[in-house]
Amino acid sequence: MKRLSYSIVYHLFLIFLLTISFAAKGAAQSNSGNGHISGSIFEKHGGYIHGYLSVAEKYSDNILNTESGEKEDFVTLCSPGIWLSLPGGKERIPETNTSSITPGGVVLGSLSSPEFRRLMAYLIYSPEFEFYADNSDENTESHHLEASFQYRFRGGMTVGFVNQFVKTHDERGTGFTTFLDEYATNLVQAFVSYDLSPKLTLEGRYGNFLVEYDADRSLFRDRMDHLWAGSIEFRLTPKTAVFGEYEYTTVTYDAYSENDNDEHHFSAGWRWMVTGKSMGSVKAGYSIEKFNAPGVGDERTFILSAQINHRFTSKTSVNLAVYRRTNETDFSGADYMLTHQIQIGYKQKITSKIQLNVDAMYSHDQYEGVVGLDGQIQTHDDNYYQGSVGIDYAFKKWLTAGLEFTHSQRDTDFEGFDYTTNEVLFRITASL
Questions:
Q1: Please, is 17 exposed, middle or buried when counting C-beta atoms within 10 Å of its C-beta (0-12, 13-18, 19+)?
Q2: Got the DSSP string for 278-346?
Q3: Among 21, 77, 137, 400, which residue has the least CB neighbours within 10 Å?
Q4: What whole-number distance in Å separates Cα of residue 19 and Cα of residue 87?
């Protein structure tokens, strides 16, 4: 945890030091001696600091996600948070989607707004506390801290930086232990892009991802990833582009060097951003994974990722996320996992205050290598299913309430790890 602690403080300080210095420089260039900060730098929209508080009560008929000996309980969830943005705005930026099993950390890249910004900086802290009514030994807390910075120079060069720290736990019912596995991750990413012409852009990117588990039983999962990437993008229109990309990731484990591996990703894709209507990215390619352990052959496979957000009308929208890729194993007997996942969400505005939300997810993990557990030696597949339906009601712009039902299910080859869980959650959120 020491490596994570110094990294967080240093990089967060660096981000906002850069923000202040670039803003001051840009303001001086834009002022032309008038003594006032130019709107072209800060693009004043107000609302630089925002706070929120979300409190929820959840009932679960299987809090540990186990096949037998299910425990039901009521859980109180408390999520206070604060976020700061420059320039000011009312819309919260989606946080970077990371996972402890993903090489390089980032599961899917964000779909950013096409709006031009000379300078953007963002900071959010969002903890969550879980309190169980009858099983207080299961109480947990999670912390999410993320900061990002981006600046576009007049010559066509853009630089950016993000640092994310997460202290959380694996979802109950994943992997092959009935214990709650807590861990911390830290992601650092930096990029520089340059517009060779109005239609052609080059980009280089570096990432560092640290994973540290608390319990000794999970020390085999502690590792550090380094990612180097380069891409070239050609804009077909102001709102659409095609691109080619190469990523090289080194995965180095702290104690289990036989799990070290290198990944090469070659891919091409298409992205579009039609403001207010549709935005998305589709990318496909080829992956080569080379392992350090003797006797383990190279893995060559097709990879795919897609994100689509489409608004059919002002009241109806759908979002889709799909990916197929190799992941690091969460079981010490396997070499790696080949993961397929699809998520789809549907939102329907019923009235100006009422919104219907429907979400579904299917995930398939194929463990590669010989997996042994309690005398069972076999290859292994996992299937996860989840569906939810909910209603949100807006009392005011700053006060909302929601009621949601979720059904989750795991179907696995190993006996004793299947589960079915049903949950009902009521949430109230106040925000500024």
A1: exposed
A2: EEEEEEEEEEEEEESSTTPPPEEEEEEEEEEEEESSSSEEEEEEEEEEEE--SSTT-SEEEEEEEEEEE
A3: 137
A4: 11
Distance CA 220, CA 209 (A): 16
Pairing verdict, β 119-125 and 106-108 = unpaired
Q: For residue range 304-319, what is the model confidence (pLDDT) as tens digits?
A: 999 999 999 999 999 9
64-106 confidence digits (pLDDT tens): 999 988 999 999 999 999 999 888 777 778 889 999 999 999 9
DSSP state at residue 138: G
Identify the three-state secondary structure at position 48.
coil
Omega before residue 127 within 30° of 0, cis? no
Token reading at 358: 């429907």
- Amino acid of residue 3: R
User: Which DSSP string do the residues of 59-78 spell out, in sequence order?
Assistant: EES-TT--SSS---EEEEEE
Question: Six-digit token pair at 290?
Answer: 């080379």
Cα distances (angstroms) measured from residue 382 to each of 173, 330, 377: 11, 12, 15
Contact between residue 113 and residue 120 where contact means Cβ atoms under 8 Å apart: no
The two most distant CA atoms of the chain are separated, in Å, by: 78
CA 11 to chain CA mean position, Å: 19
Cα gap 152→411, rounded to integer Å? 48
Number of residues assigned to the chain? 432
Nearest to 263 by CA among 301, 221, 293: 301
- Give the number of C-alpha atoms closer than 13 A to the C-alpha of residue 398, restricted to the C-beta side: 6
182: buried, middle or exposed (CB in 10 Å: 19+, 13-18, 0-12)? middle
Which residues, including other chains, have CB under 8 Å from residue 420's CB and lie 6 or more apart? 62, 407, 408, 409
* DSSP per position, 157-222: EEEEEEEEEEEEEPPTTSTT-SS--EEEEEEEEEEEEEESSSSEEEEEEEEEEEEEESSGGGGGG-
d(CA 383, CA 364): 5
Task: Identify the bridge partners of residue 405 per DSSP, sorted by sequence position.
Answer: 389, 424
Among 183, 190, 176, 185, smallest CA distance to 209 is for 185
Whose structure tokens read 């930096």?
190
Task: Give 121's DSSP letter.
Answer: E
